[in-house]
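Hi support team,

I submitted a single chain yesterday and got back a structure, but I'm not sure I'm reading the token output correctly. Could someone confirm the output below corresponds to the sequence I sent? I've pasted both exactly as they appear in my results page.

Thanks,
R.
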Amino acid sequence: DVQLQASGGGLVQTGGSLRLACAASGFAFDDNAVGWFRQAPGKEREGVACFSRYDGTTDYADSVKDRFTVSVDNAKNTVYLQMNSLKPEDTAVYHCGRVLTLMCPVNYYWNMDYWGKGTLVTVSS
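Hi R., thanks for writing in. Yes, this is the structure output for that exact sequence:
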């Protein structure tokens, strides 16, 4: 069975850092890209970052570029999202999901077939 579970959220002050982890099972990163998206109360789903092992690229939303970084631990089949210089507008539930394709399409966060429950990130001002 395909499963993805995000963890590592919490409460942090503005300017602080958190590292989220996405533990994946039931599929290989060679076969699908993996994306992070977030959803704040009353707002639409927003793509955060997408990693493709196939072409070795990671795409970031403009709103998180230069602050967030994706890394991968192949042995643990886990994708990490390092979040630095956090802002109140980063407050949301963060999910990771399996993208339907090998590479990351522009709207990858709407092209996922599996995603986990999510982990809440709250940034206080």
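A quick pointer for reading it: The longest strand covers residues 18-25. Let us know if anything else looks off.

Best,
Support desk
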